[in-house]
C-alpha cells in the first residue's frame, strides 16, 4: 500500500467556504487540483501525485463529507463544492487559473467549477464520469435500463442503514469488479472502507448524490449562454466501454475538447498512473497562459 501522503507532500486543514477540508499539497509550478470520486478520498491520487509534482504545485483535497474533511449537513451541490476548492486555493495562497482534474463525483465538481468560474480553470480533465444535466439523468432512468445505484444512493437514510457494518464487503466487491486485477490490495480496500465506516461517514458520501438533480438544473442554466473555452480532456474506461466517445456530450458546449479511452477500468489513476500523468501533462502544456 502506497503511503499517505506521498513523499514530498504535507496535509493541512484548510478553512474554506464555511467548512474545513483536509488538503495534501506538494510540488512546484503552476497549480493543479485533483478531485477524487466516491467512495474514495484524496489518497486515490497517491500514485500520480509524485509525477505531477515534478512540474506543478499539486493540491489534493478530501472532498466535503469525506476522509479527514468536515462532514457538514448541507452544501454538497457541485457548484458549491467548486467554491470549496477555489476557496482552499485562496487560503493556501496559490494562484488561479489551475489545471483541474476530476474523477467520478470529482469530475462533476471539476466540470461545475469550469462552468461556474471559467477564468479559474486553465485546463479541465474529466475521468470516467457522467455529468449532471448532460446525460446523467437519462442514464439513471432504471425504467429504460439505467443504472440503479444513483437513485438508491439519493434516498434519505436507507443507504446508510444498509451499508453500516458492511463497508469492507461493499468496497471489496465493487472496487475489484470495476478495476483490472491486482489494482487494489487488501490494505487499500481496508483504508477506503475505514474512511467511510459508520453512518455519519456514509452519510457524508451519499450526500454527494442527493444533490444531483439540482446540479443538473444548474448545469443547464450555465450552459444555456456559455461555452467552455479552456482545453478539455474527457477520459472513458476503455476496458468497460472500448467504443465510447467520451467527448461527444461536451462538443456542443466546449471549443477545444478531446476524448480518449484509458487502458483501464473505472479507477484510472490507480490502474494506469503513468498513462494518466502523461495525459494530464499533455493537456496542461496546451493550456493558454492567462
From TrEMBL:
Keywords: Hydrolase
Pfam families recorded: Abhydrolase_1 (PF00561)
AB hydrolase-1 domain location: 30-143
Keyword Glycoprotein: no
Gene3D superfamilies, per database record: alpha/beta hydrolase
One MF term in the entry's GO annotations: hydrolase activity
Name of this chain's protein: Alpha/beta fold hydrolase
Organism ancestry: Bacteria, Bacillati, Actinomycetota, Actinomycetes, Pseudonocardiales
Amino acid at each position: 500500500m502506497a503511503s499517505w501522503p506521498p513523499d514530498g507532500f504535507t496535509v493541512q486543514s484548510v478553512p474554506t467556504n464555511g467548512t474545513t477540508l483536509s488538503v495534501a499539497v506538494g510540488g512546484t509550478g503552476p497549480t493543479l487540483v485533483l478531485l477524487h470520486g466516491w467512495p474514495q478520498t484524496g489518497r486515490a491520487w497517491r500514485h500520480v501525485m509524485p509525477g505531477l509534482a515534478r512540474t506543478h504545485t499539486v493540491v489534493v483535497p478530501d472532498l466535503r463529507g469525506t476522509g479527514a474533511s468536515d462532514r457538514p449537513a448541507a452544501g454538497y451541490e457541485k457548484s458549491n463544492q467548486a467554491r470549496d476548492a477555489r476557496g482552499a486555493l485562496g487560503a493556501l495562497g496559490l494562484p488561479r487559473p489551475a489545471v483541474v482534474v476530476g474523477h467520478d463525483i470529482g469530475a462533476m465538481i471539476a466540470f461545475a467549477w469550469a462552468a461556474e468560474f471559467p477564468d479559474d480553470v486553465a485546463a479541465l480533465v474529466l475521468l470516467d464520469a457522467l455529468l449532471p444535466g448532460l446525460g446523467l439523468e437519462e442514464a439513471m432512468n432504471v425504467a429504460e435500463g439505467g443504472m440503479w445505484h444513483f437513485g438508491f444512493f439519493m434516498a434519505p437514510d436507507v443507504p446508510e442503514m444498509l451499508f453500516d457494518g458492511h463497508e469492507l464487503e461493499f468496497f471489496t466487491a465493487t472496487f475489484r469488479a470495476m478495476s483490472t486485477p491486482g489494482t487494489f490490495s487488501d490494505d487499500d480496500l481496508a483504508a477506503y472502507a475505514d474512511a467511510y465506516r459508520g453512518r455519519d461517514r456514509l452519510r457524508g458520501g451519499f450526500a454527494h448524490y442527493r444533490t444531483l438533480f439540482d446540479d443538473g438544473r444548474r448545469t443547464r442554466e450555465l450552459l444555456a449562454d456559455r461555452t467552455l473555452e479552456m482545453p478539455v480532456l474527457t477520459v472513458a474506461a476503455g476496458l468497460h466501454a472500448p467504443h465510447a466517445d467520451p467527448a461527444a456530450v461536451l462538443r456542443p458546449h466546449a471549443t477545444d475538447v478531446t476524448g480518449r479511452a484509458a487502458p483501464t477500468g473505472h479507477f484510472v489513476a490507480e490502474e494506469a498512473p503513468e498513462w494518466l500523468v502523461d495525459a494530464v501533462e499533455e493537456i496542461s502544456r496546451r493550456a493558454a497562459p492567462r
